[in-house]
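Re: beginner question about structure tokens

> Can someone show what the tokenized structure looks like for a real chain? I only ever see the sequence side.

Sure, here's an example I had lying around. Input first:
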Amino acid sequence: MDSMVETTPAVVSALITPMREDRSIDAKSLQDLVQYEIAHGSEGFYCCGSSGEGLLLSVEERKQVATLVSEVCEEKVPFYVHSGSLGTREAIQLSIHAQEVGAKAVSLIPPIYYHYSQEEVESYYLDVVNAVDLGVIVYNIPQFTGISFSKDSSVMQHKKIIGVKHTSMNLYDLERLSQAFPEKILFNGFDEIFLYSLAAGAQSTIGTTVNVCPSLFASIREDFLQSNIRGAQQKQHLLNTFIEAMVKEGIFPAVKYCMSYLGIPSGPCRKPFKELDAGAKLRIEGALRCIEAYL
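And the corresponding structure tokens:
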């Protein structure tokens, strides 16, 4: 197996971005959160992605988050920076900064809103590839971007495209990617199918609920590696019961409340996300009890 794949952390937190009540970044809570998650089993961090509200942050705020995470991780725990943007200029700027603060790689959603041609999408990625010495991870999230990456996507052929964050329920495409590019890193992006993504060829997961229960993900993976499929299924069922409750309340505000409840003040999400009411918070607290053995 390629050494890059071998050294990839298996359980990566799609890190939330703690905020104060005025929705400014809470730097202390962010660094406390990273330390908390390392202590509870997170093996790496993916900052400023969907869970981190990256597209709701300014360029300077995204740089701030990456810097704060790097100060805690140093060279001990790998972290990835989502540097995707609406435009190539900002994506390059964020990618260069990620390299400067020690990120293991950068990851980018494709440019969205305008209906770009395949050639234009590819040039966006290649411009970033040529601007930094880091590897680049394609963020495949077709239900939000309208663009899907598969084994036939020409951008995948580039050697500095080191992997894919596959946030899609399409396990067939994931399996085809694993067969076509065994040297590339495949990250599962949907917590609900973590176990099944391993069977399809994923080596790692980048997950929102990893913030809350990294040890549960590690346990599912260990059962899978030990061929204890029934045990892994039972734990995936447990995780999915928790996820289902989070999704009903709004996954990102719900996970931020989970971390506040567990002792790391994480505040609300940026508007237009709504704040949780008292009833939602009680339901989330109830859902946490179903995974309390892994908290």
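Each token stands for a local structural state, so reading them left to right follows the chain. The longest strand covers residues 135-140.
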